[in-house]
Amino acid sequence: MIPLPELVPARMLNEFAYCPRLAFLEWAEATFEHNPDTLDGRFVHRRVDAGDERAFPPPDAPDTDEPYSPSGEPAIRRLLTVRDEALPVHVVSQGAFVGKSADRITIRAKGELDKHVRLIDIAQLCLYGNVQISTQAFRELVGTGIPITFHTQHGYFLATANGLWHGNAHLRIAQHAVSADPVRSLRLAKGFITAKIRNQRVILRRNDERAAEDADRVLDRLATLIPAAMEVDSIASLLGIEGIAARLYFSRFGALLKFSNFNFESRNRRPPTDPVNALLSFTYALLTRECHIAAMNGGFDPL
């Protein structure tokens, strides 16, 4: 009697589910007929099938803060939105003028060729510094639901111009009711801050490749701040924990940069004093604008 093997090829399980007789013929009686695709696969996997190579060491145990860790928590539901082909248009040339021509906006700047962008291709119009816009272009953009955002020359977000306010007044009433309730507003703030600290820890754990005791210390300290944030009883205490987490995160931020010509010592702003901090501040301004517009489009009061 032929002894049963310890392992069954995954392909044979597939064949058995499809047709038990086919699985018996191909595996037990070895009557498998090769074709060019299977021969190519056999050649590619010849080293694996030989079994004479050392196996890779087992991976480290997953961290409980990893979004894909088997921690027993329910999976986060993905919300799939309709893909918007329109993109933001940024006008940074000082002295530029934005006008309208038919179904397009025109951008004229001294010493540059005129640029034309179709309205249907514009998600937002972002104006930086001394940039002018005509009344016709302004009216057309806000009338079609395309926000116009205003920034300083250095990128700080100042204001946004949109169409009429979203009609769901009951949503904003509920929003302000939660804001006025210390218990409910603190509960929401705890969720925001703990999620932020978890994300900071995951980013460091995945990308800080420099083996150092300080890196482990920062990860351990961030891990202790997560439950601490859930136990505070005031917004002031929660802001203190957020500040501690930010200081720890940016103490290792320089180790995440892969290019030697980017140097990061510490976080500074208003104004930033080095290229990395300038990029961080500009990115924060862009995110602030995106969150502001998303809140308005959803019917919330962004302020």
Q: What does this protein look like?
A:
- The protein is of the alpha/beta class and about 300 residues long.
- Among the domains are: about 85-160, Ribosomal Protein L15, Chain: K, domain 2; about 170-295, no CATH class.
- About 45% of the residues lie in helices and about 10% in strands.
- It contains ten helices and eight strands.
- The chain has helices spanning about 10-20, 20-30, 35-45, 45-50, 135-145, 170-180, 180-205, 215-230, 235-250, 275-295; strands spanning about 85-90, 95-100, 105-110, 115-120, 120-130, 130-135, 150, 155-160.
- The strands form two sheets. The chain has a four-stranded mixed β-sheet with strand order 1-5-7-8.
- A hairpin with a 5-residue loop joins strand 7 (about 150) and strand 8.
- Helix 7 (about 180-205) runs antiparallel to helix 8, helix 7 (about 180-205) runs parallel beside helix 9 (about 235-250) and helix 8 (about 215-230) packs antiparallel against helix 9 (about 235-250).
- It is extended, with a radius of gyration of 29 Å.
- The N and C termini lie far apart (about 80 Å).
- The model has no long low-confidence stretch (mean pLDDT about 80).
